[in-house]
Design brief:
Number of domains: 4
GO molecular function: exodeoxyribonuclease VII activity; nucleic acid binding
Mean pLDDT: 84
Low-confidence stretches: none
Keywords: Coiled coil, Cytoplasm, Exonuclease, Hydrolase, Nuclease
CATH class of the largest domain: Alpha Beta
Strand content: 15-25%
Protein name: Exodeoxyribonuclease 7 large subunit
CATH topology of the largest domain: Rossmann fold
Order of helices and strands: HEEEHEEHEHEHEHEHEHHHHHEEE
Function: Bidirectionally degrades single-stranded DNA into large acid-insoluble oligonucleotides, which are then degraded further into small acid-soluble oligonucleotides.
CATH superfamily of the largest domain: Response regulator
Number of strands: 13
Subunit structure: Heterooligomer composed of large and small subunits.
Structural class: alpha/beta
Length: about 425
């Protein structure tokens, strides 16, 4: 009997080999597939890649959107957002996980452009770009205005024509720029920044910058919804007028600008007075001034006639004569009053002098009394203050007596009278 052949040994694969086979099978089977789901655990890496999870009620899948894809998207995915993604399946070898590589991404239920616009408005609103308090008034009339518009478009021609009709004294500087299509936003932003550089460095001062273009579809106007255009307007030192000719759709530029005009022509109207209206207004003002001057002149003539009938104008010196007579009467009364007051004062002085005379020390001397004082003028009241040899001066009513002290004794030093107890 022959022995049964031994079974062949099973093929043993390494983990890397098995993962490579699985990846090849999955990538061949799911080369391009559409998936709808909710964004979860969204992460933005420093490399620019996005990592998140797409999930529904019962399952989830790891998802990667590389930087090259992300730069083309107009909106930013967020947790909880419903999206539709086109891409391919692969396996990430280091973890042995299958994942979905995004090649196209769009929001579910709303267009990507509309969602991007909403997100940009929310962002700029939070940064204060739309705050009415920061918006500056327009100079009226302006001396120099910069027009940023297509060099071949109707908008710039219309603005130049309306400026010439309404206020031809404004100097216009046209800075041609693309206002739609690829690179339009970059060109508009560059134009605003260049004009501000000229203004800031005193090369060419501007009173306003007008961003103008005619009407168009939302896609045609998309350059005015870009963030770099909003940044340029927000940082402009010169007031900016957004004159995008579309009355229904409000662009981001309209919201950030200092003034929004529905059309380029409306921008010129907002900036300038109408020369013809101004001339008419000046004519009307001239007429009112002439009427007012005529009324004032008539009133002045009437007042002059009234003054002419007054006595002061008929006899101009009569008033002077009356005043002179009153002055003479007043002078006479003052002279009489002065004489009376002088007489009264003289009489009163005599009375006071008589009273003072009765109190004078000289009257006391006339009655036999005398005053004695030392040579230095001290009045002698007490003999104890004198010493023998002191010189005294005694005044009597008829003259002065000089004497020399030989003895000075107080009455307190006399012996008491006889019979005192």
């Amino acid at each position: 009997m022959t022995a049964a052949p031994k079974p062949a040994a099973p093929a043993v694969l390494t983990v890397s080999q098995l993962t490579a086979q699985v990846r090849g099978t999955i990538e061949a089977k799911f080369l391009s597939v559409w998936v709808a789901g909710e964004v979860s655990n969204f992460t933005r890496a420093s490399s620019g890649h996005w990592y998140f999870t797409l999930k529904d009620a019962t399952a989830q899948i790891k998802t990667v959107a590389f930087r090259g894809i992300n730069l083309r998207l107009r909106f930013d995915p967020r947790d909880g957002m419903e999206v539709i993604a086109r891409g391919r399946l692969t396996v990430y070898d280091p973890r042995g996980e299958y994942q979905f590589i995004v090649e196209e991404l769009q929001p579910k239920g709303v267009g990507a452009a509309e969602l991007a616009l909403r997100q940009l408005k929310e962002k700029l609103l939070a940064k204060g770009y739309f705050d009415p308090k920061r918006k500056r008034p327009l100079p009226r009339p302006p001396r120099r205005v910069a027009l940023v518009a297509s060099a071949t478009g109707a908008a710039v021609r219309d603005m130049i024509e309306v400026f010439a009709q309404r206020w031809p004294f404004t100097e216009l500087v046209v800075r041609p720029a693309r206002v739609q299509g690829e690179g339009a936003a970059q060109d508009i932003s560059l134009a605003v920044r260049q004009l501000n550089w000229l203004h800031r460095n005193n090369k060419l001062a501007f009173d306003a910058i007008v961003l103008g273009r005619g009407g168009g579809s939302a896609e045609d106007l998309w350059a005015f919804n870009e963030e770099l255009v909003a940044d340029a307007i927000y940082n402009s030192q010169v007031p900016v007028v957004s004159a995008v000719g579309h009355e229904i759709d409000v662009t981001v530029a309209d919201l950030v600008a200092d003034h929004r005009a529905e059309t380029p022509t409306a921008a010129v109207v907002a900036l300038t007075p109408d020369r013809r209206e101004l001339v008419a207004a000046l004519g009307a003002l001239r007429g009112r001034m002439a009427e007012a001057a005529e009324r004032r002149l008539k009133s002045a003539r009437q007042r002059l006639d009234q003054f002419a009938t007054r006595p002061a104008f008929r006899r101009p010196l009569q008033r002077v004569h009356d005043l002179e007579q009153r002055l003479d009467d007043t002078a006479a009364r003052l002279a009489r009053a002065a004489r009376v007051r002088l007489s009264q004062a003289t009489q009163k002085l005599a009375e006071v002098s008589a009273r003072l005379e009765t109190l004078s020390p000289l009257q006391v001397l006339a009655r036999g009394y005398s005053l004695t004082h030392t040579t230095d003028g001290r009045l002698v009241r007490d003999p104890r203050g004198l010493r023998p040899g002191d010189l005294l001066v005694t005044r009597v009513t008829a003259g002065v007596i000089r004497s020399l002290v030989t003895e000075a004794r107080s009455t307190e030093d006399d012996p008491p009278p006889q019979g005192a107890g």
